[in-house]
Amino acid sequence: MFSKFTFRCVLLLFLIASTACMEDLTPSNDPIQGEQNRQGLQGTVLEDIALIDNNLNKWQLSQALSEADAVAFYFTMWCPVCDSHMQHIKNHLAEDYPNVTFVFVDYVSSSQAMSRETQIASGYQSSQVLADIDSELQNNLSASMSSFAIIDKNFVVRYNQVFQSDTGIRDVLDSF
């Protein structure tokens, strides 16, 4: 069957893989300060942002807001925790709020190609994904792993917190 060495190697790889998603690859110096910065942005006006989506199309916030009542961003590292959040967003929030555009933001991949490969490998080919290579969106929203932000038609940040449950999110989405 398995030798002790093989078992130890498999166990070590499992432990490394299962803990990797708990590591924020772009941490703030102070997690409490980071959350306060995110929440402090609520009510502020975001500038129009233009990025390239993973289908190599130009994506612009103003265009997305002209077609929906709001845009909701979820910042992903493609880890198991993010995947469970993304599945919930895709299968529940997006279905319950068709008037809102939901966008997943890959803020860890170093290239558009890498982001697209990860998107497909993770099963999100049909989802809207932006690779925030230059961290423009991440910096504007003080985002980190699992950050969730909602922007209304007037570019006002209506919600900006780490995703924990959808209760507060639904309260904001119900207003659209």
UniProtKB/TrEMBL annotation:
This is Thioredoxin domain-containing protein. Gene3D superfamilies: Glutaredoxin (3.40.30.10). InterPro entries: Redoxin (IPR013740), Thioredoxin-like_sf (IPR036249), Thioredoxin_domain (IPR013766). It comes from the Bacteria. Residues 1-22 form the signal peptide. GO terms for molecular function: oxidoreductase activity. Pfam families: Redoxin. The lineage of its organism: Bacteria, Pseudomonadati, Pseudomonadota, Gammaproteobacteria, Oceanospirillales. Keywords: Signal. Residues 14-176 form the Thioredoxin domain. It comes from Bermanella marisrubri.
